[in-house]
Amino acid sequence: MKRKHFCLFRVCALSLVLCLILGLAACSSGAETRPPDEKPDTGAVVNGDGTPADPAKSDDGTPGDPGSIDGPDRPVETKAPEFYYDGKSSDGAYGANGGSPAEPAAPGAGEGAGTAELGEGGEGRTDSDPPIGLDDPVAPEPSYNPGEALKLTAAEWNDNANWPFFTNLVNAGTISFPAFGIDPRNRIEVLVTDEAETPLENQSVTLLGENGEALWTARTDKAGAAFLFWAEGQTPDRVVCGGAEAAVRAEEPSGDPQGGSVMRPLDRVVLRIASAAPARNGLQVMFIVDTTGSMSDEIAFLQKDFSAIAERAGGDGIQWSVSFYRDEGDDYVTRHNPFTSDVAEIQRKLNAEYADGGGDEPEAVAQVLRECLSERSDWEPAAAKLAFLIFDAPPHQGKDAELRAAIQSAAEKGVRLIPVVASNANRDTELFGRALAICTNGTYVFLTDDSGVGESHLEPIVGDYTVELLQDLIVKIIDRYLP
């Protein structure tokens, strides 16, 4: 009986000890282990002795970053990137801090990043396309809202509409021509009407020399006007259009005591024709864009504002095209796209481009104008035609003949060139742009400093002008040339 009680006592004691051991093990496994000297995390920062730390000082008492807390587990403060244009902070710019204005930083990769990649011939790529190589160019993803206008400011000046002002500048030696082979000084204006004196549009008018050779051909605008030019050493004789012709030289006294006379070209000639060519039908608008490293602002403008321009200017009623150029030695020299009424397609082509290359001042202007104006076959004969040349640098020297042929081809087809001169352009670039506009019956557009975007813009040698948003000005010009 005593042995029985003793056994029961031993069993109970062993059970109690076992329970205690198991309980201690459970408590030990659920506890957080720390190095012996580390203080518990109470949500406050403490020194090594457990006293509260001064966040403006490091552990040794020296001044630290007042906005930071020292320690291996301190949270890292993150900041949204600021965006810039050419090194300036500006709303709507692309490229994050740490990149270069001429080479915007690409956005971080990740799901939904949507980075546009360049494929063969500038085609945009999709997720189903094969991956590109590490050395292939990748367009930075725009970080702006495409529906928000980029506030580039600009103005225009039309030398043909202010011809006495222009000739006074030339006669005074303030400006001089030719500019890269383009000479607008010797000009005759021809007004073409029907027999009721109604101006006729889209009529082909040719200036003939004294030997019957064709010196210049152009098409009339809405007002029935065409501007014809001849070079130094050529002698203009008459103009012809639709079976009618008129002399362009008039006799006047020379002031010679012998009573002689001289022949001088007339400033303006009126031609009345009985049979007119068909009026214009439709409008084609091309943007020819310099995409070298200094053109990031202007490329971003087109990427942001093109869709709004297309919507405001008539939408599907216009055919659009974009051509891009850089220079020899860059990843491409020229890149062309056909005309289309699909605004989204043009927007996609624009979004795939970015500023890169160049490096010296002259660019492949002569080549892109030759290819766009002389060699393209998709300009519609009956359509009104505009070509916006957006650039900031002149062509290479030695391209005069190529440039003259391209501009004469534009005038003959009725393509109105609208030079848009960007920041950092010099006087030679201004005069070259003005010569292009004069010889094709276009208008000269120049960006201004009023926007505060980009580098400084050259003040042109012109009369009074009105500054407005570039988007508004482009829409106004397109509407002006609509049939």
Structural summary, described in words:
- The structure is a single chain.
- The longest helix is centred in the first third of the chain and has 29 residues, at 2-30.
- The chain has eight helices and 19 strands.
- The protein is an alpha/beta fold and 483 residues long.
- Strand 8 and strand 9 (244-247) form a beta hairpin.
Primary descriptors:
alpha/beta, Rossmann fold, Immunoglobulin-like, globular, disordered N terminus
Quick synopsis:
The chain has about 475 residues and is an alpha/beta fold. It has 8 helices and 19 strands.
Structural class: alpha/beta
Molecular shape: globular
**What is the CATH H-level superfamily of the domain at 153-157 and 279-481?**
von Willebrand factor, type A domain
Tally the helices: 8
Strand order of the largest sheet: 15-14-13-16-17-18-3-19
Instruction: State the separation between the terminal residues, measured CA to CA.
Output: 125 Å
At the third CATH level, what is the topology name of the domain at 153-157 and 279-481?
A: Rossmann fold
Show unreliable segments: 1-9, 27-149
Biggest sheet details: 8 strands, mixed
The CATH C-level class name of the domain at 153-157 and 279-481? Alpha Beta
CATH architecture of the domain at 153-157 and 279-481: 3-Layer(aba) Sandwich
Total strand segments:
19
Strand content: 15-25%
Radius of gyration, taken over Cα atoms and rounded to an integer in Å? 36 Å
Order of helices and strands: HEEEHEEEEEEEEEEHEEHHEHEHEEH
User: Which percent bin holds the helix content?
Assistant: 10-25%
